[in-house]
Fold these 2 entries.
Entry 1:
Amino acid sequence: MPTADAHRAVEAVWRIESARVIAGLARMVNDVGLAEEFAQDALVAALEEWPQKGIPDNPGAWLMRTAKHRAIDQFRRRDTYDRKLQQVGHDMEIRQESAEAELDDALDDHIGDDLLRLIFTACHPVLPAEGRLALTLRLLGGLTTEEIARAFLVPEPTVGQRISRAKRTLADKQVPIELPPPSELPTRLASILEVIYLIFNEGYAASTGEDWIRPSLCEEAMRLGRVLAGLLPNEPEVHGLLALMEIQASRIPARTAPDGSPILLLDQDRSRWDRLLIRRGLTALGRAESLGTLGPYALQAAIAACHARALTADATDWPRMAALYRLLSHVSPSPIVELNRAVAVSMADGPAAGLEIVDTLLSDRSLRDYPQLPAVRGDLLARLGQATEAAEAFERAADLTRNARERTLFLSRAAALRQP
């Protein structure tokens, strides 16, 4: 097989299988840093051997087996071989062949539990948000440091440091690679959902750079969401988050013009929305609703569904959306929720009603540098015929945003309002 083709095959297999391999190894060695090292050793071996010997029939099992043997070899060299093997219930020196078969079974069984353990570990609240993001994409997404850096538009060494610090913190704090007890599950699960949604949002509405959206991050977040929904099928907020992401992602084909410039929601060609993603999202929302009281993510999905179900912007059920935002503000109060509620209220009851809500947020320090606050205010002022004040608000939004496409959009709105 040509080397280039083999390397592409290795990369594809790694993207699919790396999380499973690392998860199984992490349970074996109880250290995510070591587990990733052994998995990376297997990746290097594949890059060396597959071009010469061909791709094995079961490439995922080959990676797992190779990584396992690298781990065993290192345990031998460290004179901790017996102790480590006892941790997984084996005596390799006495019965090598039997023990290897048992160890294969140990690594292959309970893959779902292993992945859950890895997810809970990578998203452990002892880590800062940026560390959780980077470590999750590295361990569970199979992304390289370079790919993560490119996705978030930060220097590659910075991402490398975040990943290294996260691994070191987990080791120093002796965070066990295990599922949390039931009493901690809500808090720990909330941390995981936050990480996945942060990844999605950075793709859906890029905070920096030249591009309005980065679909690859959205796709990775949805993939993680689907994995989590399969592992925790009875958690309503898991399905709520998946529904929210899939419904929002359905709009991606219509969110930009051919030149990459943004197209706002009410101006989008809804025939370009991805109907398959909408159906998937509505199904996930139905699953969340069937499991009990809706949490913040499911409520946001229900709001997104109001747009998805409307064939035209005029057909949107704005009163229902405003009511859902009011409910969301009680369940998960935040100034950003209030800002979004103001938009829905303005569409249901008129721009003056929305502006009244927005003006109560002007003194909120947490929104001081948030570009969407003056942008929403500018839009409402424009609808009320106050062109000069609206233009000033859009110019303020342009000063605050770090996204080039968004800045151009705000400045064009301001320029149009200043024309006689």
Entry 2:
Amino acid sequence: MTEQNLEEDKKIESLSSNDLLTTIYDVNRAIFRHLPIHSIDLCSLVCKSWAHVGHLIKTHRHTIHSLTYPTDPLSTIADSSYLLSDFDTFISSYIHIHLWSIPYLALVVTTNSLDRKGFHSSSDCSLRPAKYPRRSHSQTTASQTERHNISEALIHHLNKTCKVLTVVSDGIIASDDKNQSNEIELNDAVGILLLPKFPPNILGIYPFEITNKTPISNNMSRSDLHQLLGCVPDDISIRCVILFYTPRLLQTQMNNCIKKLLEYYSSEVVIIGGYINRSRYDDRQSKHKTLLNNACGLVLTGDRTHLNIRQVVLKSHIQTREAVRDKLKELKSIENEQCYLSFGIQVSCVGRGVDFYHQESNVECSEFQKLFPNTSLIGIFGNGELGHDYLLNDNDASQQQQRTTKESLKDLFHTYSTIFSIISLRM
């Protein structure tokens, strides 16, 4: 036996019971770090010690997940399945194998046609006695088929604290679990971005919903504005507002809301959004019926040392892949290259698709992906875009050094344009 082995044996013999338990605890923690959330939850049922380790691991994980259904949304051969069972299988498989963090918010984008069709579930009643034997087969089949909208189909797979914001538009932009992005205009598809709960100094996420009966006056205070936009605490500054609204919502209300943002935050806030067909917001707490024609969105907050936001507008004169690439390069910065996590928002005019680029698909999102290969991208094709250039670096000494074209309300609204925003987090 070597001297090294003798020394190791002496160390083991000198371990107390407390030292041994600590060692086992560290081993368990090391193993749990390699397990998805579903496996950790199963292990947590074994004993209190494992449950404690599992809780610590889950609360310290911050992973952004993205997925697209169907997995090949641009395929012209296979149509997407409208069976609820197929969608359930897809989501369950992803959660059991790939879900690494507990979702705090699910941002869902879906095509208008898929939202109208929904997912259908039907039960096989061949083994059940006929309750109404005189009904025809077609009548019986119809009564046993249920339609579920996208939110309903997704929500029972998520933890009870996960809020769900669903945006419906004519076309969508979505990334799969490998961050492969697609601009989906013709096929039926749904894209999902799962965001965990971050420490508030890194990223605060405040979903909000504005009805057409919500009063937004010209003399609204900063505190009232914060309450309107997701109940943001008064002592926290708003860094970014992602806003989706339908044409049915009074334009005056949205203009007043944006004016108040510009009044209280001037050039310090990033605004991005556009017109959509419908929206649904479920905070998983209130029991009120979800309305489809409300404005909705997200407010993002965070310290400048941790949260970096950059945004560019591709205006109507940018019509080639090379011009898109040159403009998107402005999003690159030392700050977001040093960041640990990031996700992107794309809001495009419905006219900037394959027809705009001479039947070439994925022009804009593919150029974004080349520059940011590890960044999930989600967005919509709408009928009016809201945004502005914002290229302020965190280390800029003064407001005069930032490049922004957001001077008044008219500078925010665009047509035949695309807005890209990248949100980067330094943990």
